[in-house]
Amino acid sequence: MADDINVIDVKSYGAKGDGVTDDSDAFIKAIAAIEKAAAVNPAQAALAGDNNRRGRMKLEIPIGCYVITKPEVFMRSTYRTRTVGFAVSGAGRGLTQIYYKNTRPNMYLLYNNDAWLSIVFSDIEFTSSNGNNNFMLSVSSGGAQNYVFERCSWNGYWNYIFHLNGSDNNSEMTWFHCNFNGVINKGVYVPSVNASDQFLNYNFFACNFEVSEGDFLHFEKGGNINIWGGSLIHYGENAGTFFRLYVNPHSYGVQRFLCVGARFEHRNATSKLINCEWNDGAVSFINCDMSSASYMVSPKNVNSLFTSGNQKMPSIKFDNCMLMGRHEFRYNVNSWNSPHNVIYENCEFSQAQGASDFIQYTNLSGNAGGQPQIKFSNCRSQGADATSVFFDTDYGFNKNNRAQLTKKLVSIKNADGNFPRAGGSETFYLPLGAIVMNIKLLSPAGSVSSSSAADYKVQTSEAVPTILASVSGTPAKNGFNVNQDLYFVCDTASKRQLKLVAGARVDQFNSNAYCLVEYIG
């Protein structure tokens, strides 16, 4: 590219890239040339309200390891001219490496002081030698925005990778196929002070945050956040929380989080998925796997925390996910004033045999009516009893002051699709706390040829079983139709473990018979 006058090769300004020489001054000179080349837009008259200059030079960094000891070598806080178009490209991760060896605390390799818009970094590896170093501070009062990072990586020891401040914008940021490795305090950090609800639209495509410790996204001022694919792993003892979404007064439309198709590894108890205090909006995980490290962590470990600070929570949904450990929901004295909307749909639970194993409620200050009702729909568990456990439930409704319930109807047969015969039984588990409202035992006439009496019971697994519904005395070939209304609370392990039992007189299997159990909760 040496013949392209609009492309700067940092080596033409004296950079060595040998991993030994301090190349700070070469980068400072190259960036100064880029700033100087920024030009008034020839098309400015045709763009109403756009008085921004245009960048007219691109920085290229060839293969090599470039040692940087000084801060602000890529962008300087002293440059304040609004300019659209800043592009830096390397030869590829591992090929082009920036080794940041700054020793002054709390300094940034890049400092965009509300100047540059439409920034692109591609194919560069950034390595830091100590945990006091920061990669980028972006301060915006309406200018700095629209960043793209492609095939970049950050490894070593970092404090903040992306630190966003200001009163407006700092939005429209996208990361493609980027990696974060090592010890990283905060991947993307938006504090509550000197930040804005206008910080919006952050998109991560196939990015990996695989660190010994640290938080990936820490947002205290809302945000519209999308994550597609990627791998997120904590492998160190101190771990951290992948997503921190903290509450402050937020404007409408800026509390939305979506994670689709990502894979997580919580290798110890200090690794957490999410800590969410948002009071509105939506949080969704779709087709994500959080269960791969289940064998390494206790099933009682809480890895996700949602808190209602006297207001409603966001709409929370886990759809088609594989989950481990427990999720905790905290509620406060006035949380009952707001409806909550939490659902787990089509999910599989690697360590829980029911909602009571998976959900942990914490009442922070009374008024149990604020306990959120949590819906489980078409979910299943793993383990020895997985095929017998019905996970679907409106969990926590028994305390919620306004609960919308759905009746569940389950059908019970044995493995070959029949009712059992003499000496046989079929065990099944309803959710702990479920209320059985009705049991039907049905068989059309002529379903079997036996003249022996039909003899079936639905009973609990208590030491002295409670009989909830039964058929007896009628010849099996005549069929039967029992419709038993009842009120039975499955509030213990032995009461939730039910059995369809065939009596001693049942001498034929019956494929046309039905045991239908209706429950709420």
Concise description?
This protein is 4% helix and 46% strand. It is mainly β and 521 residues long.
Low-pLDDT runs = none
Gyration radius from CA atoms, angstroms: 31 Å
Largest sheet: 15 strands, mixed
Query: Which structural class best describes the helix and strand composition?
Result: mainly beta
Determine the CATH topology of the largest domain: Pectate Lyase C-like
SS summary, helix count = 3
- The first-level CATH class name of the largest domain: Mainly Beta
Approximate helicity band: under 10%
Number of strands: 41
Our count of domains comes out at: 2
- The coarse silhouette is elongated
Query: Termini distance?
Result: 68 Å
* Portion in strands: over 45%
What's the mean pLDDT score? Answer: 94
- CATH architectural name of the largest domain: 3 Solenoid
Characterise the protein shown here.
Residues 8-140 form the Rhamnogalacturonase A/B/Epimerase-like pectate lyase domain. InterPro entries: Pectin_lyas_fold, Pectin_lyase_fold/virulence, RHGA/B-epi-like_pectate_lyase. Pfam families: Pect-lyase_RHGA_epim. Helix content is 4%, strand content 46%. The protein contains three helices and 41 strands. The strands form five sheets. It has a 15-stranded mixed β-sheet that branches. It has a 15-stranded parallel β-sheet that branches. The longest helix has 14 residues, at 24-37. The protein is elongated.
Topology overview:
Elements: E1 7-9, E2 18-22, H1 24-37, E3 53-54, E4 58-60, E5 64-68, E6 83-89, E7 96-100, E8 108-113, E9 116-122, E10 125-129, E11 134-141, E12 145-150, E13 153-168, E14 173-176, E15 179-190, E16 202-205, E17 208-219, E18 223-228, E19 231-245, E20 255-260, E21 263-266, E22 271-276, E23 282-286, E24 302-307, E25 315-319, E26 322-323, E27 326-331, E28 342-345, E29 348-349, H2 355-358, E30 359-363, E31 374-377, E32 380-381, E33 393-395, E34 408-411, E35 425-429, E36 435-443, E37 456-460, E38 467-471, E39 480-489, H3 493-496, E40 497-502, E41 514-520
Parallel strand pairs: 1-4, 2-5, 3-6, 4-6, 5-7, 6-9, 7-10, 8-11, 9-12, 10-13, 11-13, 12-14, 13-15, 14-16, 15-17, 16-18, 17-19, 18-20, 19-21, 19-22, 20-23, 22-24, 23-25, 24-27, 25-28, 26-29, 27-30, 28-31, 29-32
Antiparallel strand pairs: 31-33, 34-41, 35-40, 36-39, 36-41, 37-38, 37-40
